């Protein structure tokens, strides 16, 4: 069974939701990414929601094949759309694929993959 961990929340600005609601949402996002990444680990490094302004999330996806990152990101994006309420309201979601010292980042903005 693959390990699921959250390294930490580096920045957190609450809007109308409670800390409990925010933790539930980020935990669910981490679970969905883990279930769709064919990877060893998923780490939430930051989630920021600036009171009606820009919202951002940054995840490390560890152990997935970097050469397949675009396909994996597409599957993750599709699963997040189906499973996370208001997912398309996230202005900037970064998936940082890490494997054997190589990094490849995919940017998803309001449900659209920007690469």
UniProtKB/TrEMBL annotation:
It comes from the Bacteria. This is Lipoprotein. It comes from Hymenobacter ruricola. The lineage of its organism: Bacteria, Pseudomonadati, Bacteroidota, Cytophagia, Cytophagales.
């Amino acid at each position: 069974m693959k390990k699921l961990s959250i390294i930490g929340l580096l920045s957190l600005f609450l809007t109308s939701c409670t800390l409990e609601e925010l933790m539930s949402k980020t935990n669910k996002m981490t679970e969905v990414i883990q279930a769709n990444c064919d990877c060893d680990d998923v780490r939430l490094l930051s989630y920021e929601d600036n009171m009606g302004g820009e919202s951002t999330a940054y995840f490390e996806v560890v152990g997935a094949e970097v050469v397949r990152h675009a396909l994996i990101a597409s599957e993750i994006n599709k699963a997040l759309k189906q499973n996370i309420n208001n997912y398309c309201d996230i202005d900037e979601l970064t998936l940082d694929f890490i494997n054997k010292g190589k990094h490849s980042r995919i940017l998803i903005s309001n449900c659209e993959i920007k690469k």
